[in-house]
Specification:
The protein has a 5-stranded mixed beta sheet, with helices on both faces. Strands 8-7-6-9-10 form a 5-stranded mixed beta sheet, with helices on both faces. The chain has 11 helices and 10 strands. By secondary structure, the protein is α/β, with parallel strands linked by helices. The protein is globular and about 60 Å long. The longest helix is centred in the C-terminal third of the chain and has 34 residues, at 230-263. Helix 3 links the parallel strand 4 and strand 5. Helix content is 45%, strand content 18%. The structure holds 5'-O-[(R)-(carboxyoxy)(hydroxy)phosphoryl]adenosine and zinc ion (ZN). Zinc ion binds next to helix 4.
Length: 344
């Protein structure tokens, strides 16, 4: 089973070839981050145009890297949502056109499902498992029981975790994308100098909230001399990152309890999405997993942030179950995991 995957839902234009033995033959990616950096965030129209310009080249590069003929592909998988609709349209339409021209099945991939299933591409993770999905647009704890079988245990009441990193970075004048910038700035910073509130800490349940933390950081920054000194910036970044890591760990610990009660001991905690690239967050989650008696799986950083290998992998998983989609399927800006059809 060899699948070509296409990803265009945000600011990465990517194409990859993956097979049923979890081998990544090619994983080509063009990041538009530099185009968006001066705006402090992704500009949808700029992104859509850039996807259109570079996607063909990315697909060609992936096929060349894989060194296989078009006819060797068993399916085409493309992100059909959720995401910025202009970009999603570019990738979905290209995927459908290839599927039609090659006479191969089309898999309309939900981008969130791709993040959630990535651990099964990088590692041998059986169902069921508990997944913390932390990306630019989402922050959810999900009980993963099979392909398309996702139960949400908790979600954010306001900002997504990646969004919180991006907004905090803007406040600190650290640029875009914010997550990697904050992580870098936090190295050597003192996380205890500024007292920031760790959101939802100790409260029951598995929901998240980041807007209060963002406001608290803004109030701290406003009291500091402008422009911020290097030391102020480092300490504030370290305090912010520390709070997010503690909040994520606290909520995940609750979800781990629920998960273990339902499925017994010895399960797996998986982290997914761009924020999973963060070392401090990985370390905090690793501790939670150890305490809860769960194995911990964090895919390599390049598979946590947006990429097309994870999209191709959903194609593999779904085709194995005989699933595919009609070319009539419409790209969707919003597409919650709960709306996916299950296949036990
Ligand atoms: O999964 P992703 O690449 O795209 C979405 O589907 O949203 O996630 C992007 C988000 C951005 O908000 C970015 O700031 C965050 O992931 N991110 C990080 C790190 N690397 C990326 N956040 C914290 N630490 C990082 N090292
Ligand atoms: Zn993503």
């Amino acid at each position: 089973m060899i699948v070509l995957g296409i990803e265009t839902s945000c600011d990465e234009t990517a194409a990859a070839v993956v097979d049923g033995d979890r081998r990544i033959w090619a994983n080509s990616l063009f990041s538009q981050a530099a185009d968006h950096a001066r705006h402090g965030g992704v500009v949808p129209e700029v992104a859509a145009r850039a996807h259109l310009e570079v996607l063909d080249g990315q697909i060609r590069a992936a096929m060349e890297q894989a060194g296989i003929a078009w006819d060797s592909l068993d399916a085409i998988a493309a992100t059909c949502g959720p995401g910025l609709i202009g970009g999603v349209l570019v990738g979905a339409t290209t995927g459908k056109a290839l599927s039609l021209a090659l006479g191969k099945p089309f898999v309309a991939v939900n981008h969130l499902e791709a993040h959630v299933l990535t651990a099964r591409l990088s590692n041998d993770v059986p169902f069921p498992y508990l997944c913390l999905l932390v990306s630019g647009g989402h922050c959810q704890l999900i009980e993963v029981e099979g392909i398309g079988l996702y139960r949400c245990l908790g979600t954010t009441l306001d900002d997504a975790s990646g969004e919180a990193f991006d907004k905090a970075a803007r406040l600190l004048g650290l640029g875009y994308p914010g997550g990697p910038a904050i992580e870098k700035a936090a190295i050597g910073g003192d996380p205890t100098r500024f007292a920031l509130p760790c959101p939802m800490l100790g409260r029951p349940g598995c929901d998240f909230s980041f807007s209060g933390l963002k406001t608290a950081l803004r109030l701290v920054v406003e009291k500091l001399p402008y422009p911020l000194s290097e030391a102020d910036r480092k300490d504030a970044a370290a305090a912010f990152q520390n709070c997010v890591a503690r909040a994520l760990a606290d909520r995940t610990a609750h979800a781990a309890e629920i998960f273990s009660q339902r499925h017994g001991p010895g399960g797996t905690l998986v982290v997914a999405g761009g924020v999973a690239a963060n070392g401090a967050i990985r370390a905090a989650l690793q501790q939670i997993a150890e305490k809860a008696g769960l194995n911990f799986v964090a895919p390599p950083v390049a598979l946590c942030t947006d990429n097309a290998a994870m999209i191709a992998w959903v194609g593999v998983e779904r085709r194995r179950l005989g699933l595919s989609d009609s070319l009539d399927i419409q790209p969707r800006p919003r597409w919650p995991l709960s709306e996916l059809k299950g296949a036990a």
